[in-house]
Specification:
Strand content of chain A: under 5%
Shape of chain B: flat
Radius of gyration of chain B: 26 Å
Shape of chain A: globular
Distance between the termini of chain B: 44 Å
Helix content of chain B: over 70%
Number of strands of chain A: 2
Largest sheet of chain B: none
Number of helices of chain B: 16
Oligomer: heterodimer
Distance between the termini of chain A: 31 Å
Order of helices and strands of chain A: HHHHHHHHHHHHHEEHH
Helix content of chain A: over 70%
Number of helices of chain A: 15
Structural class of chain B: mainly alpha
């Protein structure tokens, strides 16, 4: 802690911390207040008199109702959930297997394969979305959830593999050898001994992968076209803006409701999420 | 007990002996375990990458395969004023945001590295900008920057800092600044939490020993914390540089590249050309123009990781 006078504590700790929190959290407050504020209050110029932008005395559910009755928001939520869960599951299976092979088995080219997977981890989606869009159209996957379920693993698997390698390396070799001496095959030793020990890692990778696929935007924007197939980020972007008119109330309500599933997943597994985040960076 | 359960399952679903023998061989097992990953990454990263290169040397449009045109697309984009602006913007955007994200992230990490009440709670809340879908939170910013209803203008006006309205997203320079602010906002938590993880591996005894020897806080930071944190910092910065350089969402939502194409980045301009106007091959060329820089950063990162591992 900071030594010395109490004012030092305020100047060097409380004030900067409060400013950081204000900066980082204010947009969320603004999202919440906008989504319950009636239109009459929303569209008042910023310099009109007697106007308090930070509070409303007439909260309304109109925007949320609009979202569920006039738009396909419920379908978007369902699509996003389904796509995120499916691509997370695929990536976890691939990542756990690949992580196990790369960290615990001896085979030719193990090192270069590991490097190769690490490099794909650094490939941004924006580099490849144009040729991918062409491929998706040629395979007739366009405008189906499969376009995303098959492409999201490209940025999830490398990160899952990388994270799982770290966890598997920490499992002592003796544990596996004991099982092998007792007659388990390699496959069984992996499935029943090593993988269960690495469950915390799998959970971290899973939570992180789920939030990443929930947040993905450009592939969903390019590969999906009909309103009923869209994910939340794309649906909110394309269906709540008509020409130049922004439906700010429903937009903010949609942004808020679309964030809640990831926020819930996150709040239950904060520690795992942080482990996934820092593990994915440190490797 | 555990083993008898294992053998029970073996008896029930005994695989053919040949397959079992193959899986006992480390190399075969590794191969089997890696196949799904290699197939998926090969199909959706390696193959599209090659397709992208092939696409960029044709004059293909949506639905029309096109013919080979050599480097014509690259000539065309290098003589395109908007492309040049996007290149400039991308470098400014990446450079400025990275400096701020690192400085603010490090500061926040050091604040969080203290013991105070509600620490776990604060740390959880601070990550929100990073976990909430970027597009959705960027809309909140766009609404805050709205020319007519801006809450920021309201605040500045009531603090007496401005007299008229500021048209945040209507002026090219202000629009760029707005985008940079949103990117910093989104990136600071990632830097802070990753650097905090790095800080927590530094033994507090080092700092205490230096303090007893009379080192000032600034000296302790510069000679102890910073050098020990450098490996984590490097990885976080390089990782963030790649993501920022190839960023799309924030600009797409905030300005769509406007006003008058003044705030495009590589990715948003590639999107506009390829998807907006259907010039697939030219768009692929713009996206591929990012590659040399990304490649360089990846190489630096690989070399750096190797060096750290060797030590």
């Amino acid at each position: 802690m900071i030594e010395g006078a109490i004012w030092r504590k305020w100047v060097f700790f409380y004030v900067p911390m409060a400013l950081f929190l204000l900066f980082l959290l204010f947009p969320f407050y603004w999202m919440v207040i906008t989504s319950v504020r009636p239109d009459g209050e929303l569209y008042r110029p910023w310099n009109s008199i007697n106007y308090n932008p930070f509070w409303t005395w007439k909260p309304t559910w109109d925007h949320v109702r609009y979202l569920f009755e006039e738009t396909l928001f419920a379908s978007w939520l369902w699509n996003t959930t389904f796509i995120a869960l499916a691509s997370t599951a695929i990536s976890l299976v691939c990542g756990v297997f690949a992580g196990y092979a790369l960290s615990r088995l001896n085979f030719p080219f193990a090192g270069s394969l590991g490097t190769g997977i690490f490099i794909t981890y650094l490939v941004p989606q924006t580099l490849l979305f144009i040729p991918l869009a062409e491929m998706i159209r040629n395979y007739r996957l366009g405008d189906t959830p499969w376009a995303l379920i098959l492409t999201y693993p490209t940025f999830l698997i490398p990160f899952c593999t990388w994270l799982m390698m770290g966890y598997f390396k920490a499992v002592p070799k003796e544990l596996e050898e004991c099982a092998r001496i007792d007659g388990a095959s390699r496959w069984q030793a992996m499935l029943y001994i090593v993988i269960p020990v690495a469950i915390p890692g799998i959970l971290s990778a899973g939570i992180f992968a789920f939030t990443l696929s929930w947040n993905e935007f450009i592939y969903a924007l390019v590969f999906l076209s009909s309103p009923e197939q869209k994910t939340v980020p794309v649906g909110v972007t394309s269906e709540l803006i008509r020409g130049d008119v922004f439906y700010w109330g429903p937009l903010m309500a949609g942004a808020l409701l679309g964030s809640i599933p990831v926020a819930i997943a996150y709040s239950f597994f904060v520690e795992h999420y942080v482990a996934g985040l820092t593990g994915s960076v440190k490797g | 007990m555990a083993i008898s359960a294992v053998s029970a399952t073996t008896l029930r679903e005994a695989p053919p002996p040949r397959r079992q023998r193959l899986l006992e061989d480390e190399r075969w097992l590794a191969f089997v375990l890696l196949v799904p990953t290699i197939v998926l990454l090969g199909m959706f990263i390696a193959y599209p990458f090659i397709r992208g290169i092939l696409l960029s040397v044709t004059n293909s449009r949506v639905g029309i395969p096109g013919d080979f045109v050599g480097l014509a697309n690259f000539y065309k984009i290098f003589n395109d004023g908007i492309f040049r602006t996007s290149v400039y913007n991308t470098f400014v955007y990446t450079g400025v945001t990275t400096v701020f994200k690192l400085a603010l992230g490090l500061w926040l990490a050091m604040l969080l590295n203290r013991n105070f009440r509600g620490k776990a709670f604060t740390r959880a809340f601070i990550l929100l900008p990073f976990i909430i879908p970027t597009v959705l939170s960027t809309f909140a910013w766009k609404w805050m920057f709205d020319p007519t209803f801006s809450v920021l203008n309201w605040l500045l006006y009531h603090f007496g800092l401005i007299t008229g309205r500021i048209n945040w997203l209507g002026d090219p320079d202000l629009a760029m600044i707005s985008i940079i602010i949103v990117n910093i906002w989104r990136g600071v938590p990632f830097f802070a939490i990753s650097l905090l993880a790095g800080l927590q591996t530094i033994s507090p005894e080092l700092n205490e020993a230096a303090a007893i020897d009379g080192a000032k806080p600034w000296q302790r930071f510069w000679h102890i914390t910073w050098p020990l944190l450098l490996p984590v910092t490097m990885v976080v910065v390089l990782f963030s540089v790649i993501q920022t350089f190839a960023d799309f969402q924030i600009v797409y939502v905030m300005t769509g590249g406007g006003p008058a194409n003044a705030t495009h980045l590589f990715a948003t301009y590639a999107y506009q050309i390829a998807i907006g106007t259907g010039l697939l091959s030219e768009g692929a060329a713009i996206a591929l123009a990012m590659f040399p820089v990304l490649f360089l950063v990846v190489i630096i990162q690989l070399l750096y990781i190797r060096r750290v591992e060797v030590r």
